[in-house]
């Protein structure tokens, strides 16, 4: 790929009941897909930049569902692997009460856990601007973890920037196992995204602004602490930065963090200054939470101006 | 339980797209449940006899879906276990082309595989007439297999008849692993149901009538070879028996074998002669295939006469 | 039944259009069930206590729908009667404008009106802790009214506590006919639930706290005045009590009163003090209004702590 | 009305589950309407002739559904009465097995039973060509029966032809009560439609051709015996007539008889000869059974030629 | 028509995705109809006054959908023309974000653009009280514009009041083309409805109250400036008038203006004073925005009092 | 593109009611896409060969729907143009009676008609194996026709084979206008697909086998006459060829011809002999008709063997 973002991880089929309430009373579930990394790739593609995603899916209809939908969004999936040994992973996202989302995963020993270093196609990475990773993939299995490490090494060799969203998932691995792995990754990445709780997991305390600076001390040149409805703060190129969240009503908060990352990285690849990166990131997050679906509401570039003209963006 | 049938195994949530075609083009899936053993229990309950089912489900909404629906049909599920370690197993049943069904399972290391001998509640079994087992459960895990063995032993001690439907599932275990286990079970059961291909798997060749007689030689007093649209033949109490299938159009063949077993066992528990057992079994199978769903079409007793009066039942 | 709650009345099929708006523009209606008494029984069962419901349904598919769904929730329906003379009663619940519910009933001369004293199965009542009644049943017909009276008498003989929710339905009988019947019932019950308007119908005026005390003067040891979003006040064992409602958004208020009653009675049966009874009652009401459906949102016991930890419960 | 057909009776809301199977397993039902008389009026209107229907509906949303849909089809409903005393009648049409329809009615003491002679608006009848009646209306109540009698008398006074479709409904009244009433009506009608079983109910035996001739002997100038898939035979203006049914696959047979009647009467009003009346009647019946719904498949005039050119019509 | 309102224009099929979000992610669209003029006619008919609508639709199923639904609401459509040259126009109404509606039209060179003066049936207009027009129709084509002009002339000849809702649609014609045409129409109408932005388009500046008076100076006896959630002001019979909007939550604002016009004109035809006209207009607007659909929420007369008793109406 | 097929034309949004019956009675329609050329491209991509499609869509959500779904299937759409002047074309596909499909188009002056020679991107065509065209595109407008001609010329210059499917659409242009244009195209193509009626339109009479030979005389090296359920015959490289259709039940025949063409061309590009081309073409056609949707049932390569092993393929 020439320019653009490369990412990999596990993307799953996503079943969602159509209304709020107990799943047991639902007659049907809607079929979608979702994965933190492919969400970011879709977000980047919608903003007009090249994006490629790879990973493993089962050699079955849910696997084709995953690939068809990601590819449909203009993301290159040619390096994805169909693994005929296991079925495609899936998740069920319920909303038992208004405002509460509960996700159940069927991914144990699934295709994502079978990722291996040889799945990383050097030809995909060569010429890319950014390799984006999340802290989910190393939690899936030893070989997936090894794949992440190998990809970082390859990226550095090829001169590709490394971006990491910490995305700590307690259900996949305990803190004591996650912390050393994630800290090691932080040390080798250029751009880092974390929540303030995740910063603490990485051993960094203090106000979010302080956390950002301290994390930058570990290695990354750009650190952004995502604070949800409270916006974001960061430490970028040796200076503090901050952005407010846009005041929208949150319909479905899942995926908002991925939209934020996509917005930031797309502007980074476009050579925009950090204020612009954060403004776009906040706008993307606002779009994402306003409609149902993990990524379906992510904005196209021409929609950004509409949104920000309605709301304004506050860069402090 | 006083009188009636006890059975156990794994019942799963069942997702089905509403129409024929590729799953990837489906916008939604319907939520149901299914499991060979609970299907039989529901069939028996609809025919008016006591039935109890137990097994493990996850401590989640899909688990409650399984329990709610089985219990709703009048089957006692009080001995079922909610296992908070793993999510409830599920399956996806597609019809990519008319007349073709393809099922994908998410049950690896699921609640069913965590069945253990201590899950068998002696108080449930005591006083029952029949313990019904399938060849699916021993394939799930060593401990599930051990549970089956322990239940057979307990049943024999308590004077409860043991019924076995071979139900060989090649996806769960290879023939070389299944055959010795299943042969051992056959030896200890009183009533045996098998397809002609399953009879071969058990090492018994020849025409179905011959297979039935030879299988009876291994131990069971009653052997019925289920032949689908060709009806069934058997060797019961030392004599050959046969029944034709009713001439109905098959809308959804999944579950027809379970309906057949339920019909047979319900009449056996009612003290009906073998001709009546087979007639009811055939009628139940015909009802089951006529409407969508694994068990939803199973008949109530008062519906049987309507059906057989329309079609007649041919006992040869 | 050993321990637990027994209740009876009429439960109906419930048709609801999927969205707000005129029914005439709806293309389809969802199929559910509902009835004040079975709602309470389901609420009690979800909180982990034994519950039994009986009543009459038609010998038809809607009748099976009613029985299947109640039984699916773990409520014993073995004493219910299938009446082949009349079809199962049904109701249509529209929401023509947001926040307005309009229910049309098809129950005139239906199975509920055909309840008769012989439908009360002494074996069900024997050993129960509570017989729960509503003021709906005596309004259905003379024989239904007689059935209520007979059941109260039997309960008292058997030493079973009698609980009554006034539930006055103006569409079923005029105040002049209802008041004497309901007052008579109040006199013979141990636990009484009423709205403040219903208390007035019973001839008791004043602030709700005063009404509670005055109603207790008529006989019941425990009186609770349900005040919806304003919480509840009562007079229990000779002392005033009160609880606030939890501050949740009401999506569907139908059934909230039944949830409240279920919560109160479940804790009463568990031997909890009145503050705990009211706290659980308020939590159950809050759960019920938060999701669509008359009873579908009622909580399981393990969900109560989640809710109250989020909201806190104010016992004054 | 100048020219055209006037009819009256009870039209009900119609709830239908979307697929074959037990109603209890349906999650939703579709909302439609149906009634033998309004079906005929719709059929006549679609063929381009004036048609008016009246009757009673409840003053509720289902009543508006009935009126909106009939009026939408171009049938004049201005003389219909909204009766605020009772809710609109409804029916549930299930297909528990392929090819089997089961209808449950909620019409006891409903608006239809409250029809009274004063509901017959002389201004609607004056100038009409045909008053069409069915044997359902007199079965609803004494006052409905009286209304039918009064309308016949008025029609004869005004010189309006009287058409009667026997439509015997055993669930509404027993043969011994129905026969004398229906025979009396037959005596006063000009055009009579009956099934061969209904002809027997009227006391007329023999082959259908013989029945037709014998019924004509009671009074009607035109008698048609509807034989479903076997076509129809009749005795019209003193001579035998017959038509074959068109060879179409029956998806939903309900309403086919009404379509047949509509086709026959529309051509009669247009002055077409009997062969044309029967050909159109048969074509209308064929259209009706080919799509789901009681009347939704009835043809417009320009669709008739398409159909008959595909199939041909055999007039013997 | 004797008394009542006559209107004409283009009514289209209306496709709407069931939820908020990008249309591309919708699996299905709901089928409805809509058109500013038929909306007004439906509103008038629901308030109990005679109403007729005509216009052109294609000779196809969408055309029948349009006619069936308008006629179903009790509006006379006998003068409508089925034009077999072009398909019925349609529109797609998306809600990409909560509170944002986006409509795409497929009406270029459609039936509406083919309206011609000869489509105006003098017999429909004769005896009517009001001819209602919108500024949409003259924008459709030269011949549609000519039809509007011809109808105004005919109305004045027949002594029928002319009502005009400016309804400027920028997508159909630019301001420089629209302004002279609309100003000319304003000069010949008796009752005028406009937004404040539309008043400016007509060349009239100032506060809305001033605009109303100035527009009245151009010819119309009654001028009402619709201000949405801010209510309306006007200049009627030489005096200022005003009404507040009712404080309801807007679910779907499309059609609210048409409901307002229908309410005003219905009361005008009933001879009600201007305060009553405005009160009903405001109540109709409030009903319209409270439920989904362009016209489905318009009130019947007996529903008005319910609404205003809940909210009160403020006539200043 | 290196190797593979390039095609262009107009692809539209496709609205389909979910069941058989009049569209006016449908509550909703499903959203899909379709176009003869993109159908072929999807078919080729599913068989594992590179495929690119281009054309014009509106700059709106239906346009994104078209692009997303084609791209999702692995077809390169990078050369497609978003035209902000007109909305994306759409079509409505009804099934008023079983086995009858009726399509209404909204494409007049749409994006397809605005195709122009400069839309043909030389870089896409360079290196391709086949340029596939249909007789639909030249019918859309003069500039679309000119685009087809220019593309043929460019293809011949670049040494790219030209394939043409006649696809005569009488609704778009009369025979007298179509025939000379299509005959001219036939002269310049290498591979020609036509129905026997289309061959007649091209002025070639006789049995299909004779027509094929005669059409080959006009220029194309390979001519295939598609005969639907009767299979196909052809004249390829100077010799007659034929294939039977596979005996499957046709659920939805639309798109079967495109599947056939895709199968033929995919094998041609793979260097397979003509018998193999025809066998795959027939298998693709059989898959296409077996499930609903214009292209959704097209086979992947690994599904072909399953199908042909079930049915066998008869090459005569």
From TrEMBL, chains A, B, C, D, E, F:
UniProtKB keywords: Kinase, Transferase
Q: Name one GO molecular function term.
A: kinase activity
Task: Name the InterPro entries for this protein.
Answer: PfkB_Carbo_kinase, PfkB_dom, Ribo/fructo_kinase, Ribokinase-like
Among its keywords, does the record have ATP-binding? no
Cross-referenced PANTHER family, in alphabetical order?
CARBOHYDRATE KINASE PFKB DOMAIN-CONTAINING PROTEIN, HEXOKINASE FAMILY MEMBER
Instruction: Report the protein name in the record.
Output: Sugar kinase
Entry keyword Iron: no
Q: Which residues form the Carbohydrate kinase PfkB domain?
A: 5-296
Q: Could you tell me the superkingdom of the organism this chain comes from?
A: Bacteria
State the organism of origin: Prauserella flavalba
Per the record, the similarity remark reads:
Belongs to the carbohydrate kinase PfkB family.
């Amino acid at each position: 790929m020439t320019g653009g973002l490369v990412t990999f991880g596990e993307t799953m089929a996503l079943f969602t009941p159509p209304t709020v309430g107990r799943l047991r009373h639902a007659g049907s579930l809607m079929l979608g897909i979702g994965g933190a990394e492919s969400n970011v790739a879709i977000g980047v593609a919608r903003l007009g930049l090249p994006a490629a995603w790879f990973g493993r899916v089962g050699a079955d209809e849910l696997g084709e569902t995953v690939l068809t939908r990601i590819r449909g969004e203009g993301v290159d999936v040619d390096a994805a692997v169909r693994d005929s040994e296991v079925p495609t992973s899936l998740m069920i996202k319920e909303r038992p009460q208004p405002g509460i989302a509960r996700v159940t995963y069927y991914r144990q020993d699934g295709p994502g856990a079978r990722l291996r270093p040889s799945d990383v196609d050097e030809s995909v990475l060569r010429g890319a601007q950014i390799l984006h990773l999340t802290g989910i993939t190393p939690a899936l299995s030893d070989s997936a973890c090894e794949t992440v490490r190998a990809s970082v090494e390859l990226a550095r060799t090829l001169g590709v920037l490394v971006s990491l969203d910490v995305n700590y998932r307690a259900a996949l691995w305990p803190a004591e196992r996650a912390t050393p792995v994630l800290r090691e990754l932080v040390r080798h990445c250029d751009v880092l995204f974390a929540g303030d709780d995740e910063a603490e997991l990485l051993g960094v305390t203090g106000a979010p602004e302080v956390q950002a600076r301290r994390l930058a001390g570990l290695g990354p040149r750009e650190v952004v602490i995502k604070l949800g409805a409270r916006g974001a703060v960061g430490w970028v190129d040796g200076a503090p930065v901050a952005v407010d969240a846009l005041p929208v009503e949150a319909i479905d908060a899942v995926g908002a963090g991925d939209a934020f990352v996509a917005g930031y990285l797309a502007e980074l690849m476009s050579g925009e200054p950090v204020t612009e990166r954060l403004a776009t990131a906040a706008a993307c997050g606002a779009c994402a939470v306003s409609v149902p679906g993990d990524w379906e509401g992510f904005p196209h570039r021409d929609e950004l101006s509409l949104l920000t003209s309605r709301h304004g963006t506050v860069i402090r």
